[in-house]
Design goal:
By secondary structure, this protein is α+β, with helices and mostly antiparallel strands. The chain is built from 13 helices and 14 strands. The strands form four sheets. Strands 3-2-1-10-5 form a five-stranded mixed β-sheet, with helices on both faces. Strands 4-9-8-7-6 form a five-stranded mixed β-sheet, with helices on one face. A two-stranded antiparallel sheet has the order 11-12. The N and C termini lie far apart (136 Å).
Length: 473
Amino acid sequence: MRFRNLILTVAVAAALAGCTNETLDSVNLSSVKNKTEYQLSGKMVSKMRELGMQKTSPILLRIFKEEGTLEVWKANTANRFQLLKSYKICAWSGKLGPKVKEGDRQAPEGFYPLYPRQLNPNSSYYLAINTGYPNTYDKANGRTGTHLMIHGACSSSGCYSMTDEQIIEIFALARDAFKGGQESVQLQAFPFRMTAENMARHRDNPNIDFWKMLKVGYDQFEVTKRPPAVNVCERKYVFNQQSEGQFNATAQCPPMSTPPALQMAMASYDKDFRRDYEKALKKYQGMVWYEPTEAERKAVVADQRKGRELAYAPTGSSLDAGKLLKVSELEKKIAEQKGAEEAKQAALIQKEALEKAAREGKGLPVPQANPLERSVEQAAVQPEPASKSLWDLFSRNEPNASPVAPTAASPAPQAPPQPAANGQQEVPPAQDKPQVAAAPAANAQAQAAEQPAVDQAPIDQPKKRPFWKIWGN
């Protein structure tokens, strides 16, 4: 009995190991002589055979940003698509939401047809598949951007970046499908799996209306397991619509209808969705999902960069870096981020101004104090000159001499004026004038009005006059 249990344990372990190896299975690039002609592994071909797929049967790609997943679906003999393999996206830039303009670092969301000409064997990022952004919908809505790829190197600036081992396998799957006669591979790029719970969790996102439009195509694939027919009219996506008129991206939609069989299937699907959505709303009542920044996602997987090139920049999953918050907590966090961003922009503007001044050979501006304010401040703090007594006249005016308190002695007699060289009378210095007793209170305001303003510049102290100079001529 114990031996039998041991055999079962080994068998289960082997099965689990097989699943793990399939997930971690990677191509040995050192043994690949021609990356564009790389042949899928025997393990992959065997799995296709088990699922009733031919090597050259059509494929479909699905991307889920939040989960960080790229899926390859392949048609079986019944022309229904099944999941063949799921890959972990190494890096995607920006946040959830569609790409709107060149340089916004957003990765595209929507439905994109991939043609053979979009396979790039000479990419700077090992291999690449151009997403075809902007598509008809993007152009109708004025969205801009170029060279948005699915490529290798694990470094993204608006692209979906895989590892080189992953992209060589995805590239080979698309190449073989085109060889089998598939005209275009449909790429479905979603912000997340559009389940009732996820739609409720993201209900406050400003992109929710756009996502609801994408969800129609998502739901129809979930029900039919076949790529939906995609058209654009009135600047919006429409899926699996029958019409005798022409679809024009910016014009009014022609009369159209949904096939009856699809309509019945979708009615049942929508009923279940609404039930699950109401449950999810109660679950998330009073809570809001905080969508992490690209930097916050990178921080979660920072250890993956160790020992690799600087260009290798995995970004991690939004599910790992994001969180549910109360509304008040989210508002506070957004305000803090806004303040930090404004400070960053102000510093950047100042830096650019300084660099411009340096390039033009101009001196850097030095802040100057307001002279008016400085004058007022000096006048306010300048002390009144102390009255001197008779005994002060005999001091040596040493710096460390202790001050002598003024006395109430009578004012010293004024020295007679010295005749000037030209015969005119010389006015004695202000310092030699005797101190005048305080005026009566009634004349205080008049004296204050007549008193001149205190000079801002420091006044040179006159030299001490000898005793005999004070009393004599």
